[in-house]
Automatic annotation (TrEMBL):
The chain crosses the membrane at residues 27-48, 60-80, 92-114, 141-163, 196-217, 238-259, 271-292. Signal peptide: none annotated. This is 7TM GPCR serpentine receptor class x (Srx) domain-containing protein. Keywords: Membrane, Transmembrane, Transmembrane helix. InterPro entries: 7TM_GPCR_serpentine_rcpt_Srx. Residues 35-293 form the 7TM GPCR serpentine receptor class x (Srx) domain. SUPFAM superfamilies: Family A G protein-coupled receptor-like. It comes from Steinernema hermaphroditum. It holds the Pfam family 7TM_GPCR_Srx.
Amino acid sequence: MSSPSNGSFVFGSELLGQGYTNQTDQIVGHIIWILSIIAVILGSYNVYLIKKMSIFHNAFGWFWASRTLGEIGSNLVHVVYSGPMTIWQPTIISPTMGIIAFTIGYFFACHACVMHQVVSVNRMVAVCFPLKYRFIFTKKICQILIAICLVEIVFVVLAYLVIPCQMVGYSPTLYEYVFVSCEPGMERDLSYVGTVVNRFCFGVCFATVISDLITLVKIIQIKRGGKQNQMFRRDVRFFCQTSVQNITMMIALTMIVLVNNSKSSDGMIMQIAAFNTLILTHINNALALIIFNPEVRARIAGRHITVSVADSSVRAVPTQTADHHSNAGNQK
């Protein structure tokens, strides 16, 4: 890309601010910054709840916590870098910082995306194969799955840096992660690695929709058969938590795939929408843990509850009794 002052090529000039701010910069920057702060706060509270509440001391909780940590890491990058850079539009910060911001944020975001598929499969197995669940999702297997996802994402991120001319960074003027030109007069305006990864992520998310549909069909069959019990109803709530994210995630990924770093005015609007919809997805995901779990809502309200195995009714009980039932009733 050419420098505006002397026409000479400046590597990473796409990632520099414009030196002054306008109303659009302020609006978009503050939206990114505020939404990301909300996502970090809610995500951190999710991790706290998973640690403190025995209902989440199982494979579902470990996977949900791992995904949430990925979302927290991704949004922290926006809080520290993307949002402030968009608001202030500085020109003195090295373009390398924009590439680093993308690398760190993308690592965490991709991990969260892949772990969402793992969470979805976990719920499918819990509902469709309840007797085999505890043998499939042992603590060791859960740790191995999380480790495999992390290693996979490391290689994905390295592909941007190792393969020549594929780098991407955050652009405060385009309000999105964009391709970094590596030579003067370059006509290509996209990263091939990024194009492949974006489509892969879309495929992963679509696979999550399919696994959720399979789970939903099984839930309907069980309900019609009249075999609901406490564990089944809890699995239904956990299923709802995983499935609500797919709506915003599919919208965001569809926009990302369609635009794919386009620099047209219409493309920029789509990129802004996609960038912020991903953050909204993380907020939506964190809220799901609160909305779909009466135990969490009761904790926020300062009450302790237990669920009767016989009729799944919810009632207030003393702290010691609630903890006893929770530990006894939620072991896999």
